[in-house]
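Here is one such protein, fold included:

. . .
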Amino acid sequence: MRNFLFLLLILLPIHGNCSQRKSSKSILDYVDLFVGTSNSRWMLGPYASVPYGMVQLGPDNQDGEWMAGYEYSFASVRGFSHIHAYAHAGLLIMPAAQDFTHYGGSVSSAYRGAGAGYHSRMLKNTEKAYPGYYGCELYDAECKAEMTATTHCGFHRYTFHEKDNVRILLSSLVVSEYTPSVVEAHFEPKNNKQVEGYARMRGIYGDYTLYFAIEFNKPFKDFNGWVGDKVFSNADSIHGKDDVGVFVNYATREGEEIMLKVGLSLVDLDGARNNLRQELAATGWDFEAVARQAAEEWEKRLSSIEVYGEERDKKKFYTNFYRAICKQTWSDCDGRYRDTYGKIHQLPQGQKMYGGDAFWNTYWNVNTLLSLVHTDLMNGWVQTQLELYRTFGWTNNGPTGLKMSGIMDVTHEIALMVAAYQKGIRDYDVEKLYEAVSHNSKEQGKRFGFGGMGCLSGMEYLNVYDSLGYVPYEMNQASRTLDYAFTDYCAAQLAKSFGKEADYKLFLKRSGNWKNQLHPELKYQMPRSADGSWRTNFNKFSGEGWVEGNSWQYTWYVPHDVPGLVEAIGRDTFNCRLVEGFEKSRKHKFAAHAFDRYQPVPFEYYINHGNEANMQASFLFNYSGKPWLTQKYSREILDVFYGDTPYEGWGGDEDEGQMGAWFVIASMGLFEMDGGVTSEPQFDLSSPLFDKVVIHIDPRYHGGKPFVIKAINNSPQNVYIQSATLNGTPLQKPKIKFKDVVAGGTLILKMGPKPNTHWGV
């Protein structure tokens, strides 16, 4: 059909210095937005968006429950909502041609009788999604639905048959993973082509107000709406709470397009209007131009790394790369934003405020990727954290829509901030950076009363952790001790770089507190009581006392002192246990779904790559004298854990890019065990998935010279490194300095089918 012709234009190669390729395919051809979208989180779907867009516009087809949002296996759509961010949702739009109803209905049923709702069945074979675009044919709505997006705006195009009466519905009530309640909503027509309003939502981290300015390409016949069960015709405005929405009517010719441009803001109506004007006014009603612009933004980001190898692996690589760039921009085009109290602030020109899911262990994946090829985003995150510190007094592990969340109860934003500084990414007040990091490690953390889940800033149990050397299990999870110890290490490294000797000694000493939970005989991390006693009836597979993991998995969780952990456990025991874990986890594809959430019941799960606390496991052998096992198991995880179908993408909780970024980094044969927080960051080396990788180093803070990784004789069987050279100089250890990578050059790895047990030991 002619409306799909523009997709061919989008997928043509967009030539530039970073994207010259011998293949006739564009990089975007390798991105499959449907991978992993069955049994997935609210944030992961085939949504139209741009990198770090506030808007992720696409279909919702589940009823409200955990992980609600888009489910690939369902051929039904309730509507197309604009925000699919962690703990945030907003503004659903749906075309309709069937008998009028303002009730969305249950999408789990194909029932079309009275009370079925305005949801529509979808012709599944027409469903298409590409970076920046989503489209499908709606059977009951009798139209083709297409959408694209900019950072703050959604652009809808609905192509109808000849009909006497079709309608476009706008609803403030969005059924989502954590469905927010509608405290107050207001819709008002400015004329017969414009609707404006707001919806004040109550989410799990407090209230937020979504403002919207909507333009239609053609005048609507009338303006109507509903509040609960009451329907209002020819209304001047619609105002209420809970279920509030409006609908406008059209008579359409065959093939007529009804288009909507939607500007959004968390600041005010002026912000929504300005965002709409700034981002969509210049293109008029040229849908294809906006979709192409979105595709170009994705092409620019994704072409920063080129890979050469098997087609299936390239599909997995660029799909994972795409997923790794999925946080949000919450400040407006003019630099204004609302803080967690609702106060409006003005940013300096060019600065933005980012938000999203937690930074829980992103130092193993997302942070590394940003520091190589997207340093503007990494620098922007530090600026965001320092702005939060300036206005709120604390940084935050997961500013969700700029709400100061307590998600995961850790402070791993500190690792990103320290790594940015250590890697020379410093377009901010570095003295303020040190102040914020030091404050986090010295001041008692606080829990604030925002929303149902509350807000935690800093280390909530710092006082008892400081005095006892661990967090007692009767107070909180034993994993807090390990999280705090790593954050202390990050702070210590920054203090060392700043010449703060007293702070360095204080933080470094505390970073050794992980030893206080390592049982002296059993050599497992074990919860302890405040009186020093160990938990009775200990079971290393129980999740009791741990955050989304168990004792076996958390025993390896000392990213800042793996040599010390090897020594404490004993090298032979360390290796034997870890090998046993990998061998027994192969049948589960190295995932443990029981620990996707809190799991106190003991299940015999070892490796769990599907959750953050265990994603370093395959690289631990680089520290225990058997680097060939790192090569073996990291390569196997890339092949087995990661899929390329809607039903198999990530065997766990993808968490806005963390598993995707791990694939990208590890498939290049790289990893940062400590997150790159030392004054001289280093990569661990492993077996690359690809024959050749070209990393176009970001020139903003680094030299911009490409770094090339070549794997000679690489194959699915030849996974073992036989020898390595960096710029012609032999490497004897499975390590390479970050500064050598960003300086550009060539790493050559000769691969073979059997381990070279002499290399890298």
